[in-house]
């Protein structure tokens, strides 16, 4: 049933207007016949739609303006970081630029801006800022910089808090440097008399699961039991998620039963999502559906992420009808598809070679105002390359160039692979050079793909040149590993750590390490 616009309804219910008003004509001053404003529904609906469209355009312009302003602000503050004369800048500008750089995980920019912040006359060191920076460095897998940042914190004569130590342990844990991570925990208890809490241990458990160190998970749980720290809901959910991803379904279910029996930590939607993902990812669709219903009986309602997991699981199992039935259910329950929903569907149909269906959902994605991201374009490029439709890859590249999508290394790897497999090595080489312009560091996948493409086309000299670059990158990583080992010494010696990398790195005024290689 089509709803009548409110403005039209108001006109129709006005007792002062008679039905004849809609068709009344009168002469204007020039003698022409002019129809008075009609109360017709199409006109009102058109105005309403126009107003909505105009409002949407304004919002998009605001978002773009905000994005451009943020980018300009970060670059402007970053330029001033290299100079010693800016010591009394406006606090709001510096702090906002630093906050944006942290949120976007632009670690080099964040550290430069932080160096500028420390030069300001009004600067007062705070542990909260160091915690944010350490968490960002952990996400970026920059354990060396995290260790050096901790030294800067000590030089500011701050007493590290539990949150600071937790963020530092997280940075080492995410980089699989568990000796350093546990050393941080030991320092908390012995050197600084600062006891780790349940959040600290939950973070460590999560890091161990990410690197499949189940032996360390048992060790952490034993230590928690020894110091009488009870698991929180976050800890239980982390354990369920980790055991599910490791295919340890019995352990996963036993943790759930412990949660149910607990007086304070009951299962929630995160628990539901972990169960659905675990069984769905490994093709146990019956188990997945059974537990989905069990959680419903517990009174736990699904969210958008639950539906995204169901769509992915059904798609991976080739059950496309059930996948579309989940989409219909979302529509009936007024759950709007997110960028993850569309990315999942596009990737599923792309891998299945169903290009028409993939294109259909890509168009639907844009029509519904959901902005594609790098993951979307990666799936499209891979699918077109696999189907031999390289001209469509050219089209995607043009779309990306005309958008504000932030490009990353995996996207360039997809493009390099697509053009390399088609034999277009010139385009592949151009994309490799473009990576540096876009601040995307090549990884081992980039080099391996290019070497394979050059060898396939008989260009052995070019392949050897790329291989030498790859070896240079590996030697750089080896030197950085030497720095990591240096950081395990107690007490940490900043000068010795810097000496290890003095040939391959530059050190800015903050004492932060920014590698050249």
TrEMBL record:
Signal peptide: none annotated. Keywords: Repeat. PROSITE patterns: PPR (PS51375). InterPro entries: PPR5-like (IPR044179), PPR_rpt (IPR002885), TPR-like_helical_dom_sf (IPR011990). PPR repeats lie at residues 197-231, 232-267, 268-302, 303-337, 338-372, 373-407, 408-442. One of its GO terms (molecular function) is mRNA binding. The keyword Repressor does not apply. PANTHER family: EXPRESSED PROTEIN, PENTATRICOPEPTIDE REPEAT-CONTAINING PROTEIN. Belongs to the PPR family. P subfamily. This is Pentatricopeptide repeat-containing protein. It comes from Carnegiea gigantea.
């Amino acid at each position: 049933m089509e709803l009548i616009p409110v403005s039209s309804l108001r006109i129709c219910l006005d007792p002062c207007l008679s039905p004849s008003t809609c068709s009344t004509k009168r002469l204007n001053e020039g003698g022409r016949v002019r129809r008075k404003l009609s109360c017709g529904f199409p006109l009102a609906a058109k105005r309403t739609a126009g107003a909505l469209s105009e409002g949407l355009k304004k919002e998009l312009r605001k978002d773009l303006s905000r994005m451009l302003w943020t980018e300009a602000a970060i670059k402007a503050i970053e330029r001033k970081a290299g100079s010693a004369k800016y010591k009394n800048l406006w606090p709001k500008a510096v702090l906002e630029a630093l906050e944006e750089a942290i949120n976007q995980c632009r670690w080099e920019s964040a550290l430069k801006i932080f160096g500028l912040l420390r030069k300001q006359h009004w600067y007062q060191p705070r542990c909260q800022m160091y915690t944010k920076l350490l968490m960002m460095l952990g996400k970026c897998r920059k354990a060396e910089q995290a260790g050096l940042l901790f030294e800067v914190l000590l030089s500011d004569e701050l007493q590290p808090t539990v949150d600071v130590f937790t963020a530092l342990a997280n940075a080492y844990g995410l980089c699989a440097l568990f000796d350093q991570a546990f050393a941080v925990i030991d320092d908390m208890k012995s050197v600084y008399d600062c006891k780790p809490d349940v959040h600290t241990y939950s973070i460590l458990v999560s890091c161990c699961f990410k690197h499949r160190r189940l032996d360390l998970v048992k060790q952490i749980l034993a230590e928690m039991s020894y110091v009488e720290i009870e698991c929180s809901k976050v800890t239980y959910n982390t354990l369920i998620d980790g055991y599910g991803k490791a295919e340890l379904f019995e352990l996963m279910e036993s943790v759930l039963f412990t949660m149910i029996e607990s007086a304070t930590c009951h299962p929630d939607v995160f628990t539901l999502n972990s169960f659905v993902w675990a069984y769905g990812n490994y093709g146990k669709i019956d188990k997945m559906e059974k537990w989905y219903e069990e959680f419903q009986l517990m009174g736990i309602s699904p969210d958008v992420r639950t539906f995204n997991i169901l769509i992915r699981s059904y798609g991976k199992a080739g059950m496309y009808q059930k996948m579309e039935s989940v989409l219909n259910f979302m529509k009936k329950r007024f759950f709007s598809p997110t960028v993850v929903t569309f990315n999942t569907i596009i990737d599923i149909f792309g891998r299945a070679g169903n290009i028409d269906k993939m294109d259909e959902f890509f168009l639907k994605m844009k029509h519904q105002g959901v902005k594609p991201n790098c993951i979307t374009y990666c799936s499209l490029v891979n699918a077109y390359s696999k189907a031999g439709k390289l001209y469509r890859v050219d089209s995607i590249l043009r779309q990306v160039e005309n958008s504000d999508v932030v490009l990353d290394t995996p996207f360039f790897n997809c493009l390099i692979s697509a053009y390399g497999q088609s034999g277009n090595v010139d385009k592949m080489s151009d994309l490799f050079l473009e990576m540096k312009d876009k601040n995307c560091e090549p990884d081992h996948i980039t080099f391996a793909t290019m070497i394979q493409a050059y060898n396939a086309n008989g260009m052995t000299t070019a392949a050897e040149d790329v291989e030498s670059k790859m070896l240079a990158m590996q030697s750089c990583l080896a030197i950085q590993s030497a720095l990591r080992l240096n950081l395990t010494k107690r007490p940490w010696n900043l000068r010795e750590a810097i000496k290890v990398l003095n040939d391959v790195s530059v050190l800015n005024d903050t004492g932060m390490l920014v590698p050249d290689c």
